[in-house]
């Protein structure tokens, strides 16, 4: 029986409120379902938000009142899934924890919304979340099955750098892989969140559980991320999905943008694009893919943007605003450019054909309107330039089990671009074990041993 599924990652950024972000998640998932997607990954901290550039008024030996107020705002923006600070594990999954009198469920209802979206669309969801439990926040990822609801939840065991100011350390027991069957294909899936992927022993803990779908929600858009994802895929002989947010300063919450440190031009350097990358980002902003959509409104057909160096190696043309609103049938087959005579450009979804029967789904009306409004707004002020400053370029990708790049990396797409890999064959994971099984035949487990507190490393049944 064929072991093929269609998987996708969503490069979506957090919206100003949890309800708005959940609505966007539902819309993106509905679009993924229309494209035949079986499993969809959202970025790290998609619900609750990644507080990029915020230092929370913290310095060695002191914390400011403004920083405490910022933490209060961030705490309120996090979601409550009804779990305990220690993590109740199976009891949380099975809803065996006590519910307050007069309440139908624990938490703020976010879990129930995610389960309803998965059930209504038939798409298995993996969502990056900032979770509050007790008085602490945790960076988490939740696995949501369309049939059974939440199957499990990861909490990041090692926050990075300034994240440690606001995120507590999760229990290593949450590294437990979960299993599900979709269309007859058995999946063993697990997540390593952002720089947890730089922890070799943590990666090995996942490999030991025989995962064939390795999930890596992240906030890292550095050039070093893609090689790391390819390494994880090759080492683990697993498909790797990585989702990141593409973020401009204007996307940050007001309690960050309006802070005294932001107005003074100070930010946490660990969260902004490094100076070494700033020149390349600024240069990329001048490349052809940044031509305004308004050019199409006047009947002009701009040339197809040149691929970036990485894209040339894999034959992929980066998505651009020029293609937003044009469906496959609207593209000239010779030039890959939008044709002058086309049907309604404001479609609810748009597909860009990619190599090997894969597709990139770009957003419709909202993105078109946003780009058109920007193009008609007249001269920009310095404040406009600062608002549009690119803080994270994205870089979401899908990797095959021998390290081959199937989709991406997706740069500079802000509004819910879907990277879709169609009909990937999970038997390729087993084929790759002929010459490499790092937790089995290639492990020398008679000489080397890994133990993780609270975690059974044997593959789940």
Describe the structure.
The protein is of the alpha+beta class and 461 residues long. Helices cover 26% and strands 22% of the residues. It contains 15 helices and 17 strands. The chain has helices at 18-34, 65-77, 90-93, 110-121, 163-166, 200-208, 225-236, 254-257, 260-263, 275-285, 294-297, 309-314, 365-375, 382-387, 427-431; strands at 4-12, 39-41, 58-59, 62-63, 124-133, 136-145, 149-155, 178-182, 185-191, 213-215, 239-242, 246-248, 349-353, 359-363, 390-399, 405-411, 415-425. The strands form three sheets. The protein has an eight-stranded mixed beta sheet. β5 (124-133) and β6 (136-145) form a beta hairpin. α1 (18-34) packs parallel to α4 (110-121). The longest helix is centred in the N-terminal third of the chain and has 17 residues, at 18-34. The chain is globular.
What secondary-structure arrangement, pairings included, does this model have?
Blueprint: E1 4-12, H1 18-34, E2 39-41, E3 58-59, E4 62-63, H2 65-77, H3 90-93, H4 110-121, E5 124-133, E6 136-145, E7 149-155, H5 163-166, E8 178-182, E9 185-191, H6 200-208, E10 213-215, H7 225-236, E11 239-242, E12 246-248, H8 254-257, H9 260-263, H10 275-285, H11 294-297, H12 309-314, E13 349-353, E14 359-363, H13 365-375, H14 382-387, E15 390-399, E16 405-411, E17 415-425, H15 427-431
Parallel strand pairs: 1-2, 2-5, 9-10, 10-11
Antiparallel strand pairs: 1-17, 3-4, 5-6, 6-7, 8-9, 11-15, 12-15, 13-14, 14-17, 15-16
Helix pairs in contact: 1-4
